[in-house]
Amino acid sequence: MKIICRLLLAMACLCLANISWATVCANSTGVAEDEHYDLSNIFNSTNNQPGQIVVLPEKSGWVGVSAICPPGTLVNYTYRSYVTNFIVQETIDNYKYMQLNDYLLGAMSLVDSVMDIQFPPQNYIRMGTDPNVSQNLPFGVMDSRLIFRLKVIRPFINMVEIPRQVMFTVYVTSTPYDPLVTPVYTISFGGRVEVPQNCELNAGQIVEFDFGDIGASLFSAAGPGNRPAGVMPQTKSIAVKCTNVAAQAYLTMRLEASAVSGQAMVSDNQDLGFIVADQNDTPITPNDLNSVIPFRLDAAAAANVT
């Protein structure tokens, strides 16, 4: 019985020793700091494509955060944990990509205190030593060379507001068993993404209508505003391809001209003009915002307009 009691007493003492040795550290200012990424000027018509991986400019310097461990800390080394609420979807070149929203997957790497590259999320990474850890004095959380990678899973259309969100919460402890309850700093992202929209007509080529040679006498016989005899209307289909415009979107096409007379575009010969109509032979009035040809894009954000 005495042996058992002594054994239990020894175990109890050991547990108490472990509890006093284990400590949770905090930001030396008393408030967790935030390392923020602004995504406002990152995307354009080139990289705003599904599958594209966009690497943000590296934050090469030290994050500038100091921690402090409470009295009773008996060691001079710490562990760091990078915790997230996002779920890892895939790993590419050691980067763990998490779905941040409907448009993006995000992943990160950083270099820690002992100059090893880390790919969070990851818990209880053993760091280097600092004599201040056990002295209840501030010491640097020497994370640096932060690299943030974004993978586009759905292209942005026009303007999308990304609310500020915490990607990682960073904790510092003295053992790999301490609870992760006191953040030292956070890594966040957010911003307003604006991607220019544009549509290209006929793959950028000039649309030509060749009416051949029309004698001056035919114009005289037709009179002002009338089509010369024998000159037949021509029909052409114009290919439309849009970038950063939602598939199946409803759009309209209108006509702009530098010289106009009624519903006609005036050519470089001021006595000669042309009228453009839709497939129902309804004339389109140049420079009139309400005179348009409606059409709808297909699944590839393209269409043909007659």
Automatic annotation (TrEMBL):
Q: Where in the cell is it found?
A: Fimbrium
Top-rank taxon, per record: Bacteria
Question: Residues of the signal sequence?
Answer: 1-22
- Note whether Ubl conjugation occurs among the keywords: no
Keyword line: Fimbrium, Signal
Q: Taking every annotated instance into account, which residue ranges of this chain make up the domain Fimbrial-type adhesion?
A: 187-304
Q: Which InterPro entries does UniProt cross-reference here?
A: Adhesion_dom_fimbrial, Adhesion_dom_fimbrial_sf, Adhesion_dom_sf, Bact_Fimbrial_Adh_Pro
Tell me the Pfam families matching this sequence.
Fimbrial
Transmembrane annotation, as ranges? none
Instruction: Cite the SUPFAM superfamilies for this sequence.
Output: Bacterial adhesins
Report one GO cellular component: pilus
Indicate yes or no for the key word Lyase: no
Q: Name one GO biological process term.
A: cell adhesion involved in single-species biofilm formation
Q: Which family does it belong to?
A: Belongs to the fimbrial protein family.
Q: What's this protein's name?
A: Type 1 fimbrin D-mannose specific adhesin FimH
Q: What organism is listed for this UniProt entry?
A: Escherichia coli
This chain is encoded by the gene named fimH
